Hints:
The protein is an alpha/beta fold. It folds into 2 domains: 1-68, no CATH class; 92-208, Aldolase class I (TIM Barrel, Alpha-Beta Barrel). The protein has 11 helices and 8 strands. An 8-stranded parallel barrel has the order 1-2-3-4-5-6-7-8, surrounded by 5 helices. Helix 5 (109-121) packs across helix 7 and helix 7 (142-154) packs across helix 8 (182-199). It starts with 8 loop residues before the first strand and ends with a helix.
Amino acid sequence: MADATRVPIVGGNWKMHGTRSHAAELLHALRAALDGITDIEIVICPPTPWLADATDALSEGTLQVGAQNVHWETEGAFTGEQSAAMLVGTVSHVLIGHSERRHVFGETDEQTNHKFRSVIDAGLTPILAVGELEAEREAGTTEDVLRRQLHAAFEGLRTLPIGTVIAYEPVWAIGSGRAATPEIAQEAASAVRSIVADRFSESTGALIRIQYGGSVNADNASDLAAQPDIDGALVGGASLQASEFASICGAFAHAHRLSEA
Ligand code: 13P
């Protein structure tokens, strides 16, 4: 059972899907399905063109808005990019180090570090994604990979803001329909927590929230939510369906209420 002191956080990463009218409908449906849920935090991450629409649509509710990407410089001649400073006032969270950024766009650990620090410097909350490739899991190097990615992302930081969220997203589970088993997800989340505790402090490790991501759906969410070190989910495909996403959020809210009882 998850620790009652950590409020679960569920993110909906829409990736590059939808149209503007579909986004408006989905925001409306999400608001109807989710608004008023106070047991957990929920962060909706639409594509960049609709971030402001999302912020407006959700402004009077409890749902928060996150960006999917950021550039690490504050401003400059970087065509097509957006800085964390520019996102201030529109979003509360920013995804950093997502496997698609790392593996499709070739982002390095060093760039992830720059982005991570720029988000913290701007006063926004990073959701830092880490996770191993299938070959790395098969080679038994999962924990080494997580340690390397986390240490690289934390380079230069003396402390970690307690609001920071870390998403354990095994690459092989993303978009594959093959979610990690709750045991595998728990083992990796526990490893992430230990790495954070060793790098910063016991209390940071104990307070930081760790999400699992990779083929989360309404059917597997409850078992994942029941794991002691999993404090939420980062949801891709299933976040594009309001009722499915609401079920996932409901599973984490339920697990949290049980942990408090
Ligand atoms: P899926 O839920 O579609 O597997 O995507 C997970 C993910 O990458 C969330 O960031």
